Structure to design on (840 residues):
C-alpha cells in the first residue's frame, strides 16, 4: 500500500509520520519549495503529476485551496487512482463536480477529514439516505473561533483571544478564514451538498464574523440563561430553508452550551425531531492525519470506497429524486431551494440605549412582529429574547432601533430549548 | 429492491411501513403466529427458509434472541443474500462467527442498529483502523435504564420509575434485560469485538443492575458534584483492561451529565486522549427502522457492504495483528486480554454508618490504598470520592466496612474530570 502526498505542511507531515505504523508507504510529496524540506526522506516533487504517476495506490491531497488541488484530484481520478482529501475549500467549491468525476471513473473520493476532522460521520451522511434527510443542521464547525469566543466569554478582548489562539498553534498565521466564519460556511456547504442541496455555494451562506463580539454580549446572553457560540446552521424544511455561519445564542439546555475550547460538534435533526449529536476534535495535524489514514485504509479495502457510496445519494437527491423528498417526510426537493437568508428563529437582541424604557421596547418589538419573550435589563444594556421571526423582520426591527439611536446586536437563537 | 423480514414485532412492522417510501418492497415475513397478523398485507411464513428463498435482495433480521436468528442468518449468507440485523443479543453472542461466514461468502452483514440504534457509527468503527484503536469506551447504551435512573434522581422509587417507563412504552413487558444491565453488556461486547477483542462474551462483562439505586444514592453523588448514570465502559489499555455495565458516578463536567431520559451516548478515547462523542436516540421502532433501511440501501449500493468492510479490521486485530497494536500506540494486542473485572478508576462510595467518624474513615481508606480525595457528610450518610484504585482494592475496603456494620454502595467513576 503506497500513497503520494499533495502538500507537505503540518497535516502532510503528520500523515507521512503516522503512515509507516499502519503499513502504508508514503512515496512522494508535492511541495512548492523543496529546499524547505531538506530533512524529509520523501521524494519531493514540484510537479503534482509526477506524484500521481509514481505508482501510488491512493493520492492524499492536503494542499488546501482550490487550485491546483482541483486539477490534480481530477487528474488522479481520471487515471483510476483513489483520492483522499481533507480540503474543505476544495470540496465546498467543487465537491459536486469532483464526485461526478469519481463516479464516472468508478474510483473512491473520500473526505472524512474535511468536516469535524476527528469524528467520522461524513461517510454515514453520504451513504445513508434516511440519515441524509436531515431537516436541520446545527454545528460548531470551526475550532479556532470556538476557542476565541470561549475566551471572550471569560472576559478577554477579541485581540487577546486571537493572540492566545495563535500562541497555542490553534490559529493559522492568517486566521481570517476562521474569524470571518468563511471556514465554517465552507464546511456547512459540504454538509448541504450531502443532504441533496448540491447547488449551494459557500457564497450563498449568510455569514458574519466573530470579531465584533465583546464580553458585554456574553454577559447579556448569560442574563437570559444562555451563551454565544460560533455556529453554522441550516434549515432544510419546506418553505423555511436558510443558512447562517456566525455567532448564535445557545440556551443553557442545548448540548452545545457544554462544549468549549476547540471542540467541534454537529447536531442533525430529522422530520421525527430526535436529534443526533457528533462531537470531538475538529482540527489538528495528528487528528486530521488519523482520519486521512483511515480513509486511505477504506479506499484500499474496497469498502465505503466505491464512488457510488459517497456520491450517489447526494447526487440522486440533487438531481431531484422523489425518493429523497419522500424520505424527508414531505414531497420537498431541497435541490431547488434557496439558502441565502438565515432561517427563521427566535432572536437574541442586545440593545444599548438611553432613550427607551422596557415597556416601550416591548411595545415597539410587538408592533414589528418580533415580540419579546423575555427582557432582562443590565447596567448598560437590555437583553431580549424574541418570539420566532424571519431574518427580514428581525433585521428591520434592529435597523429601526439603530435609527432611533440605539446600538443593537442581533443573533439567531439555536435549538428548541426555551431558556428558563 | 426487495427485502424479507424475520420477525414482525414493533420494529419489523415499522420497517414494513417505512420501506415503500424508499422504493423498497417488503415481500414476506417470518412470524410465529400468523393469526396475530391478519391485517398485514405481507406474505406471512412460519418457516424462515421460505422467506430467505422468496427471491429477496436483502434479509432483515429483527427476531431478537440467538436462535433461530443465528441459523437463518447463516442460511441467508450461505446463499449469497446480504443480511441486515438490529439484534444485539445475536451479534454479541455470535458476531465473530457470523462475520466470518459473511466474509467467506463475500456478502454484507450490517448491524448499525444494534448499538445506538439512531446514530450511525458502527460502520465507522468497523471499517476504520485508527478509529477502532480506542483505548477507552464509555457509553450510555440502554435508554430504558437511563430513563429509570433519571426518574430516581428526581425522587421516584425504582418501582415507580419502571412503571412510568412501561406506561410510556420505553420498557418491554419483561424489562429485566434493561434493568439488569444485560442489554448494555451485550452492546459493549459488540463494541469490544469491533475494537479487536473478538474473544469477549457478554458473560465476561462485570455487570450490576440498577434495581437497588435509591434517591439517597443520587443525593450523595450530587453532594460530590456529580450524578449516577447506567454506563457500559471498558478500558483497552495495556495492563489495565476491564469492563463494567452498571451504574457509575459521572462528574458534572462530563458530557454524559447533561443527557437524560432515553438518550444514548458513546464516548471513545484514543491514545492521544481527545474524546469523540456520539449521542442520540438509542431505540424505538421508527428510529431503528430508519437505520435498518439505511443499512439495506447500503447493501444494495455495494458500498460499506463488502463483508471485508465491517468485519476485516476487527478480525485482523482479533487474530493478533501487530498493526492494530501499533495503531493503539503500544505493541499491545487486546485479543489476549482479560476484561472480566471493572477497570481501575476512582470510586464513589456512599456509606451509611453510625460508628465511624470522618477522620477514622479517611484513615481507614488510606490504609487500604483507596484514599478519599473528598468526603461529604450528609444527614444520614457519607459520600466519598476516592483516588484511583483497582476494583479488588475498592471491593475489599467496602467489604471490610460492611463487616464493621456499615452499608456501602461502591460505584466506578467515569471520566477524567475531577469533580470540583
Amino acid at each position: 500500500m503506497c500513497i503520494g502526498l499533495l502538500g507537505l505542511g503540518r497535516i502532510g507531515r503528520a500523515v507521512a509520520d503516522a503512515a509507516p505504523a499502519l503499513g502504508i508507504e508514503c512515496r512522494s510529496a508535492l511541495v512548492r519549495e523543496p529546499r524547505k524540506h531538506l530533512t524529509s526522506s520523501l521524494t519531493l516533487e514540484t510537479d503534482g503529476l509526477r506524484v500521481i504517476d509514481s505508482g501510488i495506490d491512493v493520492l492524499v491531497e492536503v494542499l488546501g485551496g482550490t487550485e491546483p488541488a482541483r486539477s490534480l484530484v481530477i487528474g488522479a481520478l481520471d487515471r483510476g487512482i483513489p483520492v483522499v482529501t481533507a480540503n474543505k475549500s476544495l470540496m465546498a467549491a467543487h465537491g459536486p463536480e469532483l464526485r461526478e468525476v469519481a463516479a464516472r471513473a468508478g474510483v473512491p473520493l473520500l473526505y472524512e477529514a474535511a468536516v469535524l476532522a476527528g469524528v467520522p460521520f461524513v461517510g454515514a451522511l453520504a451513504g445513508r439516505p434516511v440519515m441524509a434527510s436531515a431537516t436541520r443542521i446545527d454545528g460548531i464547525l470551526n475550532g479556532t473561533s470556538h476557542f476565541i469566543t470561549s475566551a471572550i466569554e471569560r472576559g478577554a478582548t477579541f485581540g487577546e483571544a486571537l493572540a492566545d489562539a495563535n500562541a497555542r498553534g490553534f490559529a493559522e498565521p492568517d486566521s481570517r478564514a476562521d474569524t470571518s466564519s468563511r471556514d465554517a460556511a465552507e464546511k456547512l456547504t459540504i454538509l448541504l451538498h450531502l443532504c441533496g442541496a448540491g447547488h449551494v455555494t459557500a457564497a450563498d451562506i449568510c455569514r458574519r464574523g466573530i470579531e465584533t463580539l465583546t464580553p458585554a454580549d456574553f454577559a447579556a446572553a448569560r442574563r437570559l440563561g444562555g451563551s454565544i457560540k460560533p455556529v453554522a446552521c441550516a434549515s432544510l424544511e419546506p418553505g423555511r430553508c436558510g443558512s447562517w455561519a456566525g455567532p448564535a445564542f445557545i440556551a443553557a439546555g442545548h448540548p452545545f452550551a457544554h462544549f468549549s475550547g476547540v471542540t467541534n460538534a454537529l447536531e442533525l435533526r430529522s422530520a421525527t425531531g430526535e436529534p443526533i449529536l457528533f462531537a470531538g476534535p475538529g482540527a489538528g495535524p495528528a487528528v486530521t492525519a488519523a482520519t486521512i489514514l483511515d480513509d486511505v485504509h477504506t479506499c484500499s479495502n474496497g469498502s465505503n470506497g466505491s464512488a457510488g457510496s459517497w456520491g450517489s445519494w447526494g447526487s440522486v437527491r440533487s438531481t431531484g429524486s422523489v425518493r429523497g423528498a419522500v424520505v424527508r417526510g414531505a414531497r420537498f426537493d431541497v435541490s431547488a431551494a434557496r439558502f441565502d437568508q438565515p432561517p427563521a428563529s427566535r432572536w437574541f437582541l442586545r440593545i444599548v440605549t438611553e432613550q427607551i424604557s422596557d415597556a416601550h421596547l416591548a411595545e415597539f418589538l410587538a408592533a414589528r412582529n418580533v415580540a419579546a419573550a423575555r427582557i432582562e435589563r443590565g447596567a448598560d444594556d437590555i437583553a431580549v429574547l424574541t418570539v420566532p421571526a424571519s431574518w427580514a423582520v428581525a433585521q428591520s426591527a434592529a435597523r429601526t432601533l439603530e435609527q432611533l439611536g440605539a446600538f443593537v446586536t442581533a443573533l439567531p437563537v439555536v435549538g428548541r430549548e426555551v431558556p428558563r
